[in-house]
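Re: [ENG-882] Designed sequences occasionally contain unexpected residues at chain ends

Forwarding the minimal case from QA. Structure tokens:
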């Protein structure tokens, strides 16, 4: 398989599906995206009234750890998929993006209050690690059989305006699952034991979405000639440094990264809100909110970017397993492990970041973004069929992507 599909964006939907060489079932599910999944929705959410389709595109040109991958992305923002395709093409010959990942360790927290001496209680809990492991592993024997289960127990005493509290962390290897259900079940079962051992009162028993023991690091290297030369490299480095030192810039910088990450997560049925909260919390880990990515000049004048962040995703359980479109999208990506999915998602986030930085540092974000957005404006003005491209092209040529102008042009065409 190759992710280099020339002219993929010019094909119609049926031709694109044929190009992907999917199983008949997956192709049928994707073809029926516009059909209401009424029964499935009824089981997935309370008070279901239907479904809310989100545009689903495929990013081409992507290489991660030496392997080509086609990446489904669910997003309503017109420039997101195009930016990944374009960024990936510029580093494709340099072997794309490389990644590193830690084990899939998730944290659940148990809060303990009303302790006479929190530090004595902390020592007592840590002395019970063996018993805690036995209790937690017993709750999920299949996870343990496959090589997962409780890895560690941590405890912290935290001062607050309502007094000191002891917070116990259980650290669990959840393998190919996102892991929320597994660790929450363990925390709920462990809480009464902790209360009995410490003499305190347990309150919250819940996972943390700051999954800082479950990290992925992506790295990419661009030849300066592939991105427009040394001046473009220097502009990108200045823009990236702005995001590192200023939280106002970092917020938008990181939003751009999450444009790519959340789009792939949504396409594969993963929890986009968990990823968003974990990423933004990680960005503030040193006390200041900063850019999630770093960029520097490498050997021979290259531009090197790195992105490191928590990546709690799974391929078993939850919507990932229940939703047929999520399953079809995993098939497109040839994903067989959560580790591979996490690496691909991080790579997409870094490519998205490069695309935004380059646009901002050169022509400005609006030129490319508004050109793609013009189609949405044309549709909002009432354009249909071939009218959409005619109106959109006119808006771009005039340099005024506005609905009132689109409506006027549409009326002229119809007249």
């Amino acid at each position: 398989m190759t992710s280099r599909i020339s002219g993929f964006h010019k094909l119609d939907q049926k031709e694109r599906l044929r190009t992907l060489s999917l199983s008949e079932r997956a192709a049928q599910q994707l073809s029926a995206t516009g059909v209401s999944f009424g029964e499935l929705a009824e089981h997935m959410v309370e008070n279901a009234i239907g479904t809310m389709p989100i545009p689903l595109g495929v990013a081409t040109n992507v290489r991660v750890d030496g392997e080509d991958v086609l990446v489904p992305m669910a997003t309503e923002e017109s420039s997101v998929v195009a930016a990944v395709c374009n960024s990936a093409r510029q580093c494709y010959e340099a072997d794309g993006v490389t990644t590193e990942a830690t084990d899939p360790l998730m944290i659940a927290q148990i809060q303990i209050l009303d302790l006479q001496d929190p530090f004595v209680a902390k020592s007592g809990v840590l002395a019970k690690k063996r018993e805690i492991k036995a209790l937690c592993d017993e709750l999920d024997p299949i996870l343990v059989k496959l090589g997962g289960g409780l890895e560690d127990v941590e405890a912290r005493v935290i001062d607050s305006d309502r007094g000191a509290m002891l917070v116990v962390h259980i650290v669990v290897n959840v393998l190919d699952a996102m892991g929320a259900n597994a660790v929450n079940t363990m925390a709920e079962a462990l809480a009464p034991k902790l209360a009995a051992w410490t003499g305190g009162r347990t309150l919250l028993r819940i996972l943390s979405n700051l999954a800082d023991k479950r990290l992925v690091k992506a790295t990419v290297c661009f030849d300066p000639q592939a991105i427009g030369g040394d001046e473009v490299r220097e502009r990108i480095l200045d823009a990236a440094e702005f995001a590192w030192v200023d939280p106002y810039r970092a917020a938008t910088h990181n939003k751009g990264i999450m444009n790519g990450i959340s789009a792939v997560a949504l396409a594969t049925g993963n929890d986009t809100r968990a990823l968003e909260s974990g990423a933004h919390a990680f960005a503030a880990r040193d006390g200041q909110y900063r850019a999630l990515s770093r960029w520097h000049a490498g050997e021979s004048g290259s531009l090197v970017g790195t992105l490191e962040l928590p990546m709690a995703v799974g391929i078993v359980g939850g919507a990932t397993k229940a939703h047929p479109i999520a399953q079809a999208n995993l098939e497109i990506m040839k994903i067989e492990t959560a580790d591979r999915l996490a690496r691909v998602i991080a790579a997409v986030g870094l490519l998205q970041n490069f695309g935004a930085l380059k646009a901002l540092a050169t022509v400005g974000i609006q030129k490319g973004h508004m050109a793609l957005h013009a189609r949405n404006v044309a549709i909002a003005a009432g354009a249909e069929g071939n009218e959409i491209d005619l109106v959109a092209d006119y808006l771009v040529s005039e340099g005024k992507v506005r609905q009132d102008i689109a409506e006027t042009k549409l009326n002229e065409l119809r007249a």
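QA comment: On inspection the terminal residues look reasonable. The radius of gyration is 24 Å. Proposing we downgrade this to a documentation issue.
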